[in-house]
Amino acid sequence: MIPQRIGNKLRLYFAFLLLGTLAAGIIATALLSLQSLAQDVAEIARKEYPITKMAIEMQGLMGQVIEKLNTAKAAASTQRLKEIEPLDTRLRALLKSLQELHEANQDAANVALVQKLLTTYTEANDVGTKMVRAAIDQEFALEGELMPKFKTHTTFIFSTLDRLVTESAAAHNQNTLHILSISSMMTKALLIAFLLFTGVGVVTFLLVSNMSKKMAAMAENSSEAVGALLASMRYIADMSTQLSSETSESAAHLEQIDFSTKNIAAQAGENLQLANSAGKSTQQVLTTANQSEEVIREVVEAMSGMAEADREISSLVRVIEDIAFQTNLLALNAAVEAARAGETGAGFAVVAEEVRRLATRASEASQKAAEVIGRLDKKIHEGETVISTLETTFPEVSKATLNVVQLMGKITENSKNQADNQNKVNQTISAVDSSVQSLAAMSEESAATVQEVSEQVRRLNTLIDELMIFWEGRAGHYDHSIAALPQ
Q: Which residues neighbour 259 within 8 Å (Cβ) at sequence distance 6 or greater?
């Protein structure tokens, strides 16, 4: 188990705690002393000093009263008695104030003493006044009788005032000595506090000086480590910027590949549609060609029928020509026989029968010719229809063939564009491959730099441990491990 050290922080805390405790003790002592001193001063100012002052003043006033009485008695003048009235008023006021002061201090004995003093003064004043009047009236016997009483009263008054002055002075001296004692104690406490503060201050100064030197050395080491760390971080930032640029270029290349691939796919789809359209047009051309073949076959058949009908008509024409020729011969014979009619009528009848038969054959030949002509006319009409159909079919075939040619040209053009786009895709893939290789190289450099940063971080952790041991007396409870870098 590692032994615990007392860190400089605890030392500094202890020094400040000691200073605070000393300061608190001194302040508490000073406050108590000041409180006692204030009470003594208040006691002097509230009680002893006023009593002493009033007692001394009353002694003087009493002396003046006695002097005025002696003067009035010697002068045998009542006018001099009036000079005593202000002194009497002041004496009575002082006695009343002294009585109130003792009442405020709850001093019953002195209250009774002041009351007795007031009564004695009143009696002494009356006796003194009678003595002056006895002197004026020259009643010396009465004056002699009053003199002892007057002397007794004045002696009591002066002795009482002397006692009040003495007691007040004694109390004043006692409070003054107490104040001096408190002042001396405070002086000693302050001296001790000064010495203690000086000692603690010297210890604190040495501790802080040691801490400052240690902290300066640590600050220099940490500054070097932080400088190296910042340089590595700047290098990482530069590489990150370059990586971002390369990544942006790769993204642009990939977008271009995507765009070219979409164009190739779109053109392939368009080629498929064009091929389907070309297939449909080709099928239409084939269908139209089949229809045209059927029509041409019908035309050939119609032409064969017309040729056959033409042969039949030629045969009938030859029959009719033969009949006509024979009819002409018979007519000639009939003419000849008619010339002989007169001689022989039988020959004319034979000619007439032959003419009848020829006429019948001619009629039959005419009917057949009419039928053949009708069939020929029908075939001609069918040929016209077939030719009309061919006139309609051939433009459709031509149009479909032209459409197929155009579609094939479009397919050829799209194929060329696809080849161009494929070349662009190949070039872009080469650029992306180059960027990937560059990124791989920068990643290796970044990994090396991160390793260096990790080393600087470990160095900073070591400095932090040293600082914690120096400050706390123990190492910090935090994780020093660094995650393994991806390969």
A: none
Distance of CA 320 to the CA centre of its chain: 121
Would you kindly state where each structural domain of the chain is located, as residue ranges?
8-210, 225-472
Fold category of 225-472 in CATH: Helix Hairpins (1.10.287)
* Residue 347: band (very low, low, confident or very high) from pLDDT cuts 50, 70, 90: low
Residue 344 three-state SS: coil
Residue 462 token pair: 């070591």
What is the Cα–Cα distance from 318 to 362, expressed in whole angstroms? 11
CA distances 271 to 260, 262, 267, 402, 416, Å, are 16, 14, 6, 17, 11
Among 7-11, 109-113, 189-193, 344-348, the minimum mean pLDDT is found in: 344-348
Single-letter amino acid code for the residue at 480: H
The structure tokens listed for 205 are 């100064």
Contact 195, 63 (CB under 8 A): no
Residue 389 confidence (pLDDT) above 50: yes
Residue 14: CA count within 13 A, CB half-sphere = 9
Amino acid at 345: G
Lowest mean pLDDT among 70-74, 291-295, 311-315: 291-295
CB atoms inside a 10 Å sphere around CB 62: 18
**Are 160 and 97 contacting, i.e. CB atoms less than 8 angstroms apart?**
no
Is this structure's pTM higher than 0.85? no
Structure tokens that stand for 58 in this block: 């009353």
Q: Note the pLDDT tens digit of each residue in 245-255.
A: 777 777 677 77
